[in-house]
Specification:
Helices cover 34% and strands 22% of the residues. By secondary structure, it is an alpha/beta fold. It has a single domain (6-287), classed as 3-Layer(aba) Sandwich (UDP-N-acetylmuramoyl-L-alanine:D-glutamate ligase). The strands form 2 sheets. It has a 10-stranded mixed sheet, sandwiched between helices. The protein has a two-stranded antiparallel ribbon with strand order 6-7. Helix 1 links the parallel strand 1 and strand 2. Helix 1 (22-31) packs parallel to helix 7 (220-233). The radius of gyration is 18 Å and the shape is globular.
Length: 290
């Protein structure tokens, strides 16, 4: 029986307050016509931008949930993972990807580790090692520049050259993923933010640039990866999927800046979800020789 909608197994944490992870993944993908099946990795009282949130680690519960899904013979069009609550979860998620593997399935891993050149407080070196193993099973990975450097054990430099970005992407691609997308790369002048992507099966490399906006909202990486996932499941190619994701995130940030809100809450996505399927294309994907 063919499903009326695409099913996504979403392996992310749930935060009670603040827009990130599952509270972004579910509404964004649902608005794009996908059926999201959440498999929570942790429950947090609030996102980690708030001081000392209460955290419930669900490591011991992930495998039993997955085993129950197997008993139901569930099939997923995509498996999409993000924030993991412990390094032990990396191998659990890796096994889930193997257990639920189907032909033409999309496997997207957002290797959440850190930002601005440093690890998040809840992460450690064991998580980096585990994430390196996990991305070998991914079709697509979406690290930011910090996470790319952590995965490759490279020194973080925000003023990274195009040549270096190509090296990073080539090395990450060699680890297994067919498509590598590195987000949040500032240009030398600091007034442009760029996203680079490489599809090794089609030998396509390029970037999309947008004006830097003076804001720091948590959850925008989750929004980006979710739109990429949804757009690909809608049948769009990778260039269009990245265009849609960049422009939707850019639009959300630009419009949220007009409101007097606590930035820790994230972008006001509820006001803009209607545009996720017909985004304003202000910024275009540009092909570059690899």
């Amino acid at each position: 029986m063919v499903s009326a909608v695409k099913k996504v197994a979403a392996i992310h944490d749930i935060s009670g307050y603040g827009r990130s992870s599952m509270t972004i993944v579910i509404p964004v993908l649902s608005a794009m016509g996908m059926y999201v099946c959440p498999l929570p990795t942790a429950v947090l009282s609030a996102t980690t931008v708030y001081p000392s949130p209460y955290i419930v680690d669900l490591t011991e519960h992930i495998q039993p949930i997955a085993e129950y899904w197997q008993k139901l013979n569930l099939k997923f069009d995509a498996i999409y993972s993000g924030f993991l609550g412990s390094h032990l979860q990396c191998d659990i998620v890796r096994q889930i990807i193997c257990d639920f593997s189907t032909e033409k399935q999309l496997v997207l891993v957002d290797p959440v580790l850190g930002d601005d050149g440093k690890l998040y407080d809840s992460m450690d070196d064991n998580m980096i090692t585990g994430m390196r193993r996990l991305i070998t099973k991914a079709q697509i990975i979406t690290p930011n520049l910090t996470e790319a450097c952590l995965l490759l054990d490279e020194e973080y430099n925000p003023k990274v050259s195009l040549c270096k970005i190509k090296q990073y992407i080539g090395k990450l691609s060699a680890m297994g993923p067919e498509i590598v997308i590195i987000t949040g790369v500032p240009d030398v002048a600091g007034n442009i933010t760029e996203v680079f992507a490489y599809d090794k099966m089609k030998n396509i490399f390029g970037k999309i640039s947008c004006k830097y906006l003076p804001a720091n909202y948590p959850g925008t990486g989750d929004t980006f990866a979710s739109v990429v996932c949804g757009a690909l499941l809608q049948g769009k190619n990778i260039q269009t999927a990245i265009e849609n994701a960049v422009n939707f995130v850019y639009h959300c940030i630009k419009e949220t800046l007009k409101y007097n809100v606590d930035s820790r809450e994230g972008v006001l996505q509820e006001l803009f979800l209607s545009s996720v399927n017909a985004p304003i294309i202000e910024n275009k994907f540009e092909l570059i020789n690899f």
